[in-house]
Design brief:
heterodimer; A: alpha/beta; MetI-like fold; B: alpha/beta; eight-stranded mixed beta sheet; binds adenosine-5'-triphosphate; binds iron/sulfur cluster; binds magnesium ion
Chain lengths: 621, 318
């Protein structure tokens, strides 16, 4: 809660809004006990007194009523009606939305058609029609304003509910024997509530304005009762001669609506989980680079990563996701990178092309040389030209590379045409061929699918086709086949293998499958807690792992053809990279850890091409 | 003694009726499928994505109504219309450990649900039971008052297993229970599952696409292709001596240390279209042994000796 308030108030405008609206609310609440004139007593002798005349701080209106008193009573009424309308609209709309979204099918269809129809009417016309049917009066205006806002809530909440209803925890609740009502109330509602609150906080301002609008037209509060809208309406005729009578309620409406909306936006941002973790600023086009000290020397490899350090600065914490990694590939070579979740494999890969999200990511040291040219710190334009064309990525999550609103064929063709000048039909033919290469069945018809019409495995294959589109020199593949079936995986691995043999494609292949590494990669680097702990030719490392971690990791992985058995495990969990122990990061889980292991940083040592970061390696290297 | 008997279970998802004309026949996600699971057995189910593994599993726990067929648990036919009847007999462990836990409930609330709704236990009894279960899945009791986002994947998956155990089921369906986990954690969870099975006398149906994992944990394995069973056999034999060409293809494709990289399948081979299933063997378009009869007649599941069954006109020789 305090975190939430902190976040809201970090936004200056929201804080201002909060202060203003709190003051107004306090005034409105205190109105009945403040010593003031009766708002409805007329004194025609005193009409149109200017502000700051004695007895009437804000002056009087056309019937000589005290404006300050009318203003405060009016505000009170307007706020009450607006908030009541918002609550009613939210409650009804959310109920409809949850029911429609949860049950789906026919119920959903019917409800949403009706909602669509209502939304097709202009807002204010609908409200006018309702008041016309019910007759003027504040109560009816409230009903009308609530009613026109119900569809908005219903639609929003239904969308959220549909997403939640497909989540597995709802199914788990069914299996735990809960009925529909119970699931809606205890499983769905708590998850939907924040959305309802956000929707309310961003609409209550408008509802106050709408109620005021109806009153202004004489359809809301009836004389002599004051609300902000009717005060404006009554002042209309004296607008030119006595402007203060309209300015006073006008300013109040402005203050209320502005402050509520500013606060509402602040609340919305604070509840947005994406903003919660990072700063409130916009992401940068490339990763922030803040390197101190001299750059490491370039090498004559095609792509070489040298002493790369990438960190995430979140609040006061520093996550050392990549802590000094050096890797290199030559043309036609495949380098495997293996390690557990969170070991920094993906961040290393993303750093190459400056794709780590900034904030919070910062590259604090090291260099990445592509044909001798340092990519870190290169201008965005240089990187953009090289992305896809020279260095292509295949990501773990295919959705991140595909635009949901364009057909996959269109996206493939666009990728081809952005780096090569070819006519449309050629680009399309090439796109179909690429889809065939990655074994999409019926490529000729599938090319016109939207990403969401494909299964996850197929989207992943499209992602791979995208990476191959421009015959890049280097492919950085981040677990590209983890989600795929073995038959498709075998096809894709052999496709990549052919490409590197025939065209000299260099591949950095990130995975946690030793089988894949063994089959595809010439060399392998094992990562743990943001650093390489062992590297060497694949066969040598697999046959005789030198680091205790590598040895155990290999033992953990079941291998086909060994039959049923108890699997080896590594006790404990990998360390958090914001709080790395001094010395060997694996020491807490290592069976031969000694005091010496925890004393100082351990170097990656060995005779080329092998190296290990361990004081007591399993094998001398 | 049989724990589970499935007979001719099938599921067809209706398609949306087009504006004009009759609705298409629908997607046949699971074609009539029969198999038995003995009490205390672990039956592995493997197959490629879209072959109907999850649809089958969801029918078995009552999350989906079967189009046809029957499910029998320990000799009693299940009333497929009543989901709460399923809950006490058969439970499900989900693939994604985090998405199967309600983010706004404490672990205690999550654990209590099956005890309260399926077994109508009183509060002190529930607490006692939760303590026992947590002890058996190696979770600390202090976790009970925390929220799901505070747990790692492996811990969350153990909580998911603990919840399934709380219902005191006879059978647990494990739908890719370790594919979201890291290898070192995966091994921990697999070993835990084996211990729990022995401790509580459970029967498992273990669904996965990872052949090495399924071989390491199962007694028998069922291979699904295109919505139906193509081969059943003992875990130690089925991939070493497959009789169905599809099983052989799977085994040949699995990446194994020390085996050179090959693409065991020609590039042009066609995958079947679920909207328009072929009349004969669904694998005919990809099979190197296809003959005339394969295109016209669907092969039946036949015994191949030694507990192995395969649905193929020209099975591979031993
Ligand atoms: N946007 C971010 N903000 C803060 N920390 C992050 C962010 N992205 C990654 N990290 C941290 O950086 C570390 C390395 O993450 P990375 O994604 O590189 O791991 P990985 O080895 O690719 O894991 P996986 O096998 O799960 O893909 C982790 O501790 C992670 O929590
Ligand atoms: S340095 Fe020490 S603790 Fe680290 S892996 Fe080697 S033996 Fe284990
Ligand atoms: S029935 Fe024919 S096509 Fe089908 S798997 Fe057997 S040999 Fe191949
Ligand atoms: Mg990753």
């Amino acid at each position: 809660m305090t975190l939430f308030l902190n976040l809201v108030f970090r936004n200056r405008l929201a804080a201002m809004g909060a202060v203003v609206i709190t003051a107004i609310l306090l005034l409105a609440l205190l109105t009945p006990i403040l010593p003031m004139h009766d708002p409805d007593v007329t004194a025609t002798a005193d009409r149109f007194k200017r502000p700051f005349s004695d007895g009437h701080i804000l002056g009087t209106d056309h019937l000589g009523r005290d404006l300050l008193s009318r203003l405060l009573h009016g505000t009170r009424l307007s706020l009450a009606v607006g908030i009541a309308a918002a609550l009613i609209a939210a409650a009804t709309g959310a109920t409809i939305g949850i029911v429609a979204g949860y049950f789906g099918g026919r119920i959903d269809n019917v409800i949403m058609r009706v909602v669509d129809m209502l939304m097709a009417f202009p807002y204010i016309l609908l409200a006018l029609a309702i008041v016309a049917a019910l007759g003027p009066g504040l109560m009816n205006a409230l009903i009308a304003v609530a009613a026109v806002n119900v569809p908005f809530f219903a639609r929003n909440i239904r969308g959220i509910t549909v997403g939640l209803a497909g989540r597995e925890f709802i199914e788990a609740a069914t299996l735990a024997g809960m009925g529909h009502t119970k699931i809606i109330l205890t499983e769905l509602l708590p998850n939907v509530l924040p959305v309802i609150v956000i929707a309310m906080s961003t609409t209550v301002g408008w509802m106050i304005l709408e109620t005021a609008g109806l009153s202004f037209l004489g359809l809301g509060s009836q004389p002599p009762q004051a609300d902000l809208g009717s005060m404006l309406g009554e002042a209309r005729s004296a607008m030119i001669s006595h402007p203060h009578t309209s300015v006073v309620p006008g300013i109040m409406i402005f203050l209320i609506v502005m402050s509520i909306n500013l606060l509402g936006d602040g609340v919305r941002d604070a509840l947005d989980p994406r903003l919660r973790s990072g700063a409130l600023s916009r992401p940068r086009a490339t990763t922030l680079v803040d390197r101190k000290g001299p750059l490491p020397a370039p090498t004559n490899d095609l792509l070489s990563i040298r002493d790369l350090e990438t960190q995430f600065h979140v609040g006061a914490r520093t996550y050392k996701a990549v802590g000094g990694v050096s890797l290199a590939v030559k043309p036609g070579e495949c380098l495997g990178v293996i390690g557990e979740s969170g070991s920094g494999k993906s961040v290393t890969a993303l750093s190459v092309m400056g794709l780590v999200a900034s904030p919070p990511g910062v590259i604090t040291s090291g260099a990445v040389y592509f044909q001798g040219e340092d990519l870190i710190g290169a201008a965005y334009e240089t990187l953009r030209k090289k992305r896809g064309d020279r260095v292509a990525y295949i990501f773990q999550d295919p959705l991140s590379t595909l635009h949901p609103l364009y057909r996959v064929g269109h996206q493939l063709a666009e990728a081809i045409q952005s780096h090569q000048k070819v006519p449309n039909h050629k680009a399309r033919a090439r796109a179909i061929q690429l889809l065939k290469d990655v074994r999409i069945p019926n490529a000729d018809s599938r090319i016109d699918d939207y990403p969401h019409e494909m299964s996850g495995g197929m989207r992943q294959r499209v992602g791979i086709a995208m990476a191959l589109a421009n015959d890049p020199d280097v492919i950085i593949a981040d677990e590209p086949t983890t989600a795929l079936d073995v038959t498709v995986q075998a096809q894709i691995l052999s496709l990549l293998n052919d490409l590197r043999r025939d065209r000299g494609l260099a591949i950095i292949f990130i995975t946690h499958d030793f089988g894949v590494i063994a089959q595809l990669c010439d060399r392998v680097a094992v990562m743990y807690a943001g650093r390489i702990v062992e590297e060497g030719p694949t066969q040598a490392v697999l046959d005789a792992p030198a680091h205790p971690y590598t040895k155990h990791l290999i033992a953990c992985v079941p291998e086909l053809g060994q039959g049923r058995r108890v699997l080896a495990t590594i006790p404990g969990l990998p360390p958090m990279v914001d709080d790395l122990p001094l010395g060997c990061a694996f020491a807490p889980r290592c069976y031969k850890a000694q005091d010496k292991c925890r004393e100082r940083e351990i170097q990656l040592l060995g005779t080329k091409p092998r190296a290990v970061r361990c004081l007591f390696p399993e094998e001398p290297v | 003694m049989l724990a589970l008997r499935v007979q001719n279970l099938s599921k067809t998802f209706p398609l949306k009726k087009p504006l004009f004309g009759a609705a298409a026949p629908g997607v046949r996600a699971v074609r009539p499928t029969s198999f038995d699971v003995a009490r205390g057995e672990t039956l592995g189910v493997v197959g490629e994505s879209g072959c109907g593994k999850s649809t089958l599993a969801r029918m078995l726990v009552g999350l989906l109504d079967p189009t046809e067929g029957s499910i029998e648990i320990e000799g009693h036919a299940l009333n497929t219309a009543d989901p709460s009847e399923f809950g006490k007999l058969i439970q499900y462990v989900f693939q994604d450990p985090n998405s199967s836990l309600n983010p706004r409930k404490t672990i205690r609330q999550i654990m209590e649900a099956p005890l309260k709704h399926l077994h109508k236990m009183a509060k002190p009894e529930r607490d006692q039971r939760i303590r026992e279960i947590f002890a058996s899945v190696n979770l600390r009791e202090s976790f009970l008052d925390r929220y799901p986002h505070e747990f790692s994947g492996g811990q969350a998956q153990r909580i998911g297993i603990a919840r399934a155990l709380a219902a005191q089921p006879r059978i647990i369906i494990l739908d890719e229970p370790v594919s979201a986990l890291d290898v070192s954690v995966q091994a921990q969870v697999l070993n835990l599952l084996a211990d729990l099975k022995a401790q509580f006398g459970l029967t498992y149906l273990f669904i996965t696409h990872d052949l090495a994992v399924v071989e390491a944990v199962s007694d028998r394995i069922v291979v699904l292709y295109f919505g139906t069973v193509v081969e059943v056999g003992r875990a130690e034999r089925i991939f070493a001596r497959p009789r169905h060409p599809y099983t052989k293809l799977l085994a040949d494709c699995a990446p194994v240390v020390g085996r050179p990289l090959t693409a065991p399948e020609q590039k042009g081979s066609e995958l079947p279209d679920p909207l328009n299933p072929p009349p004969g063997c669904a694998f005919a378009g990809r099979c190197p042994r296809t003959t005339e009869i394969c295109w016209t007649t669907e092969p039946e599941l036949k015994s191949m000796g030694e507990d192995q069954l395969a649905a193929c006109h020209q099975p591979l020789e031993d």
